[in-house]
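Below is just one:
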Amino acid sequence: MTRSTAPASRPEDVLVVGAGIIGLSTAYALTRASPGIRVTVLEKEPGPARHQTGRNSGVIHSGIYYRPGSLKAQYALAGSAEIGKFCAEHGIPHETTGKLIVATAQAELPRLHALVQRGREHGIPVRELGPAQIAEYEPKVAGLAAIHVATTGICDFREVAATLARLAGDAGCRVRYGERVRTIERRADGLVAVRSSDAEGHPRPEIRTKVLVNCAGLHSDRIAELAGDDPGMRIVPFRGEFYELIPVRRGLVRGLVYPVPDPDFPFLGVHLTRDVHGGVHLGPNAVPALAREGYRRGTVGLRDLAATARFPGTWRIARRHWRQEAGEIHRSLSKRAFTADARRLLPALRPGDLVPAPAGVRAQAVLPDGTLVDDFLFAGAAPFVHVLNAPSPAATASLPIGREVARRALEALRAA
């Protein structure tokens, strides 16, 4: 899969920073669009998909939530159909389960109806349900009304990323794991020189490239700054905490169950998701993380924390959403409060049914005025392409997004 790590005698055509699902999909798309192209992927971790890709709920999103005309809608609608075929072709565990979006209060009914209309605009098969029909799909779930979205599914996105790495490697791409980018320098000859180090801080061979693609996720703004570009945003990390049902209680949930989203808070709320390996997860909440890789509550990154505190957008978020965040923090600190919130959907749930599961960290792009960037955000001019925000449904939409980033990289390569 991997060519030698010795310095190349000639420069790479494209260097991709980050071996999450978007970086690897980009590398894969480049090798398919331009056979023989010289592509390298640099990843600071010892393997692929160690952050957002490998720490999500594994849901293949239908696209029903996303505003018509948005990149989220465009990519999710294309990606949800494509990712299932990719999984089937390569033997990756997946299943089309469908999902319920359930209203548990009268105030949620107009928002639920709006989702029905949006689903129909997108051409997504949507069925409206009353309480008795909810029980046909999920006997233990309670609600006033619901919609069933047939095209939603689940898969193992870590396996998808590993497969993309293998396929790109088979086509000549090299993936250098365990290398953290330290400097990026644009030289007089038009090439970009990238220096990196291993986990112990020892320098690795320099890479020269004609184009650099930034798919660094939680560190995308910092890579943009290393390249000499102003990203115009900052990553503010939010930890998403999950619980898992104990094995004897997994029968409480058959598939995927979501609440009606709050339009004033840009997260989907605690939902119930069965995964391809038989587990059932509840979550995530969304609490400020004290480090960009702060997967544990006690993990504090002083540099990350200082940067977040200095950024004016952080305090504007806090002023705008403090009520919702207070509730999220309360549920983070109290398992009983988390259970009570989840019982709106699953009344039979008890605190003893839940055990902690690995958390994720969302790389939320925030503008200086406190606006949470809600769509995909690309930036950069040749020789740089920056993916500055790749929110959910990025994993679902990884194949079409990879093709789009590859297209931008090839345009930059022609310019170079």
Summary: The chain has two domains: 12-52+158-233+374-415, 95-153+236-366. The first strand starts at residue 12 and ends at 17.
